[in-house]
Amino acid sequence: MPFSLSSFLSGLTLLDLCAAVLCTVLVVLMIQAGIMDTPVHRSSHTRPTPKGGGIGIIGAFLLCALPSLFLKGQPILNPSVIGMLAGVILLAAVSWLDDLYSFRARYKLGAQFMAAFLAAAGTGASLPMMGIFILGAVFITNALNFIDGINGLASGTMMIAAALLASAGIQPVIFVLFAVCLAAFLPWNFPKARIFMGDVGSQAGALVIAWGAMQPLHTSALIVLAVLSGVLWDVLFTLARRARAGDRLTEAHRGHLYQLAIRSGLPMPLVTTVYWGFALWGAAACLANEWLVTALLILLPQLCWTGYICTRARARVQDRW
C-alpha cells in the first residue's frame, strides 16, 4: 500500500494557495463576528471563545474544489465529487444553524444520513455497499464531532488524514485542497484556541474524509479506518464503557479517553499530538499489506493508551467518569 510524495504533489494547484488565504480571511471574519462558544460543565475550555472557524475551512474548500479539478484537466461534473460536495453543503448548513439554534438530535441525525446518502449516491456502488458507506459515514461524522473537544485534535487529525489519502493516490486534488484548508485553520486553534471550528468543520469535514473510504481503490476504506483509528477507538471504547455502566449514550459527558487524559492532568497539546501520532501510526501500519497484521499493529498502541489513561483516571479523577 504505497504512500508517495509524488502522489501528493500531483494534487497541488495554484488554487491551494488561494484556498489558504480565503480560509484565513473567513476565520478572521468569524472571530470578528463574535459568535461565542460559552463553556458548560462538560467543556474543556474555561472562557467564552468564538466559534464558526469551520466556515473558513469548508467555505474555502467548497469554493476551490471544482476549479482545482478544472485546472488539473479533470472532469468537474464527476458524479462522485458532485455528490460529496452536495452532502458537505447540506451538512455544513444544518450544522451552522444547529450551532446557532440547537436542533433536536433526530433532526441532526436525519441531516447526517441525507448528507451521507448524497456522498455515496455518486459512487456507483451497489445498493448493499451504499448502505455500508452511509452507515460508515454517519459513524465517522459523529466520531469526529465527539472528539472535537480540545484544541487541534479533530482538525489536526483530519488534516493528516487528508494528506495521507492524497499521498495514497486517492483523489489527490480534492484531498490536498482539504488538507491545505485545515492547515490554514490549525494555527488559529492550536495550541491556543482563538476560535473553534464548531460542528460546521467537524461534521462536514468528517464527511469529506468518510467519502475517501468510498473511492474505488480497494485500499481506500482500510486507509481511512487506519488513519482515524485513534478517534474511532476512543469513541467505540467510550460507548461500550458507558453502555456497560448503564449510562444514556445520547447524554453529553466528559468520559472520552482524551477528556480523561486532560482531567487526569496531562497537558492538552500533548494529548492532541498523541492522537496525531495515532493517525500517522495507522498509515504506517497499512504498509504491512496484510489486514490482520495491520489490525494488530493499530490495536496495540490503543490498548496501551487506554490502560494508561484509565489507570491515571482512577488515581487522579475524583468525580464520576
Automatic annotation (TrEMBL):
Pfam families found in the cross-reference section: Glycos_transf_4
Q: Which cofactor does it need?
A: Mg(2+)
Q: Which stretches are transmembrane?
A: 12-31, 52-70, 76-97, 109-140, 160-188, 195-214, 220-239, 260-279, 291-311
The way it spans or sits in the membrane comes to: Multi-pass membrane protein
GO terms, biological process: cell wall macromolecule biosynthetic process; cell wall organization; lipopolysaccharide biosynthetic process
Keyword annotations from UniProtKB, A to Z: Cell membrane, Magnesium, Membrane, Metal-binding, Transferase, Transmembrane, Transmembrane helix
Q: InterPro entries, alphabetically?
A: Glycosyl_transferase_4
User: One GO CC term of this entry?
Assistant: plasma membrane
Q: Which residues bind Mg(2+) per the record? A: 145, 199
Provide the GO MF annotations for this entry. Answer: metal ion binding; phosphotransferase activity, for other substituted phosphate groups
Subcellular localization, as worded in the UniProt entry? Cell membrane
Q: What is this protein called?
A: LPS biosynthesis protein
Provide the species name. Answer: Gluconobacter cerinus
